[in-house]
Design goal:
It is a single chain. It is built from eleven helices and 19 strands. By secondary structure, it is of the alpha+beta class. The strands form four sheets. Strands 3, 4, 5, 6, 7 and 8 form a six-stranded antiparallel sheet that branches. It has a six-stranded mixed sheet with strand order 10-11-12-15-16-19, with helices on both faces. α1 runs antiparallel to α3, α8 packs parallel to α9 and α9 packs parallel to α10.
């Protein structure tokens, strides 16, 4: 038995020695140019070879050994993850295809956007009308366990895969809320998630428009809602971006163009100068109706870009609670085999130069409360209506300073 074990170890050693010899010989032949082509030093490449040899030789469940493609993608995921930025990540072809479906507005799952912060998986926002919202999931809830699997410290993308699945399948998600010790158990059934971008209605000559995301069709649907409600006699607009996790940067500029006529929307500050930029709203697209914007801790990314621009240009006041504070911009870099990687290429600043990454936007009228579709129970929306009444009736100035409820 010992002899057999010794022979195995000797084989690994000889194999490793041969690989090292080959790499060394190649490096000698091609000199510094070969070394520049290698992604790592010869020593580190040899260590990677040894790790693979050890797995293939000693891992007890031989039938569960990943193939080379999976091992390779795993190494890429680990390399990208080493920069310790939850938004800089490697995505394999299947995952990238799924995310493309999500940006088109339909996928299977529970209906919540999540993010990673300080090793914790946090809910950015539940999506309106989905199993997550119906179960009572709230922004900043920490996902601790999914079924029997503890997810603390796990990669955000792996957690997303666990939450998604075939429609009509059940899953139990354990949440921690507000730093409490006790966990909340939420039993949910997966559904096909159809993301509805805009919901709009007229409230006593005030256009109430709920914007749920910044996907490809968001700006067009928002413009249509503004046009329709204006034709019905709307005198002001309440733009509700609570629980809106953001989306595409160009769509954020398109949305801002509906309220800001040619003004600076956002500036980008990157390590590489070609990513430094100043993005302006289009001319002659903006409505002149008075505006109030609702935000909360579930408003992130593109929502914060639009809200920050509206606030800085004094186009309208913000009502609600401090936003999430996701202030970096990601770009997708395609890789072979239809894989890709997202890299945080810049941080953005509001027109006044305010960088809100990990800080969030502070509203002009801070009002605690939870988003609900029942207007009478929605304290934040009621406050926004009072603020709008002031904007429409200047002679009543001061009513908006009523005690925050």
């Amino acid at each position: 038995m010992f002899k057999r074990f010794r022979d195995v170890l000797l084989g690994i050693f000889i194999g490793g020695f041969m690989v090292t010899a080959i790499i060394t010989a190649a490096a000698s032949d091609f000199g510094g140019e070969w070394a520049r082509l290698l992604p790592f030093s010869q020593h580190n490449l040899m260590t990677m070879r040894q790790v693979r040899n050890n797995l293939e030789t000693f891992f007890v469940d031989e039938e569960n050994l990943p193939d080379e493609r999976k091992l390779f993608y795993g190494s890429l995921k680990g390399m990208v993850g080493a920069v310790d930025d939850p938004y800089t990540r490697f995505v394999d072809p299947d995952q990238l295809r799924e995310e493309g479906m999500e940006m088109e507005g339909e996928y299977g799952g529970l209906g919540m956007y999540i993010g990673s912060r300080d090793g914790r998986i946090l809910v950015i926002s539940p999506i309106e009308g989905t199993p997550a919202e119906k179960a009572g999931v709230q922004p900043l809830d920490e996902i601790v366990k999914i079924d029997e699997k503890v997810v603390i410290g796990m990669d955000q993308n792996d957690v997303v895969k666990m939450l998604r699945g075939e429609p009509d399948t059940s899953v139990t998600v354990w949440m921690r809320r507000g730093g409490e010790d006790d966990l909340k158990s939420m039993d949910m059934t997966r559904e096909i998630i159809n993301i509805k971008t805009v919901r709009a209605q007229l409230m006593d000559k005030i256009a109430y428009i709920k914007l749920n995301n910044f996907h490809q069709k968001s700006a067009g649907e928002l413009k249509e809602a503004i046009t329709d409600l204006s034709a019905q006699g709307a005198e002001g607009i309440i733009l509700d971006m609570r629980n809106n996790p953001g989306g595409l940067l160009n769509i954020a500029v398109d949305v801002a163009s509906l309220f800001l006529d040619g003004d600076l929307v956002v500036s980008l500050q990157g390590r590489v100068s070609r990513y430094d930029d100043y993005l302006y709203a289009d001319m002659d697209k903006a409505t002149e109706l008075p505006l109030v914007v609702l935000i909360n801790e579930g408003s992130a990314s593109a929502s914060e870009i639009v809200a920050g621009a509206v606030q800085d240009h004094k186009r309208g006041p913000l009502v609600g609670t401090k936003s999430y504070g996701k202030g970096s911009v990601q770009s997708l870099f395609p890789l072979p085999d239809k894989a890709g990687m997202y890299i945080s290429i810049a941080r953005y600043a509001t027109p006044s130069g305010n960088i809100i990454d990990h800080k969030g936007l502070v509203p002009d009228y801070e009002v605690k409360g939870e988003y609900t579709q029942v207007t009478s129970d929605d304290v934040q929306l009621r406050k926004a209506l009072v603020v709008m009444e002031d904007l429409l009736s200047p002679e009543r100035y001061g009513a908006a300073e009523l005690v925050n409820q």
